[in-house]
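can u do me a favor
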């Protein structure tokens, strides 16, 4: 299980930098990461990262790099020079690719940490691409990808919160776990199939809980974030 209280990352999945900065203002000050993903990065590029960093946010750059090792090495080095705090790569790119990302950051003199995406939360066993043997053991595959990525130098992995307990049961040791698909109790699952509540993800030992539309689409994002913090803190208090 994770040895520390889990933190939160808020998904800044906005079409413009102006909308992202408005969301940042609506959230107010706090320790939460800004998760900067493909939509905003494609729209605003590195300026989005710089703007969020200048407002005191740690930035989780969620680009899910997946290419030949040399290309990923160069991209990871660029992310490090921009000041990203976390960077995603796809674990299915292989150990050499993950190691190349870590090496690119080291050579750039950055402190960015790599987290490797195991299996997308939008997939379930029935939706796996052709060629995957069915029935498909998600937990076993995710655990194998986790072990390989961490051995290659990744801080940890991004995995479905619904898979977390099963992965830990396979590995028998601690690892840094970023869990997307988090919602508050009773919340909408949207287009994700393997989701969990703040309560259950905290109980299962998540390290970083990613909140998207559960907060960003709320009438009052700040109030929704405070509710998520309270839900997490109740679990931690009960475990103490």
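np, heres the sequence
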């Amino acid at each position: 299980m994770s040895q520390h209280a889990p933190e939160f990352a808020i998904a800044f999945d906005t079409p413009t930098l102006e909308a992202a900065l408005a969301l940042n203002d609506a959230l107010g000050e706090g320790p939460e990461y800004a998760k900067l993903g493909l939509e905003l990065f494609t729209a605003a590029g590195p300026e989005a990262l710089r703007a969020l960093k200048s407002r005191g946010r740690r930035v989780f750059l969620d680009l899910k790099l997946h290419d030949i090792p040399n290309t990923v090495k160069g991209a990871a080095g660029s992310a490090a020079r921009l000041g990203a705090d976390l960077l995603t790569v796809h674990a299915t790119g292989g150990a050499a690719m993950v190691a190349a990302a870590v090496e690119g950051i080291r050579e750039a003199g950055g402190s960015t940490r790599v987290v490797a995406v195991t299996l997308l939360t939008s997939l379930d066993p029935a939706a796996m691409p052709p060629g995957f043997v069915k029935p498909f053991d998600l937990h076993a595959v995710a655990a194998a990808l986790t072990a390989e990525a961490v051995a290659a130098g990744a801080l940890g992995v991004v995995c479905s919160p619904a898979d977390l307990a099963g992965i830990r049961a396979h590995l028998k040791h601690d690892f840094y776990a970023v869990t997307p698909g988090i919602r508050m109790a009773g919340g909408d699952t949207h287009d994700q199939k393997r989701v969990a509540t703040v309560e259950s993800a905290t109980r299962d030992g998540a390290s970083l809980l990613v909140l998207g539309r559960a907060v960003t689409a709320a009438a009052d994002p700040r109030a929704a974030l405070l509710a998520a913090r309270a839900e997490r803190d109740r679990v931690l208090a009960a475990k103490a």
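The chain has a mean pLDDT of 90. hope that helps!!
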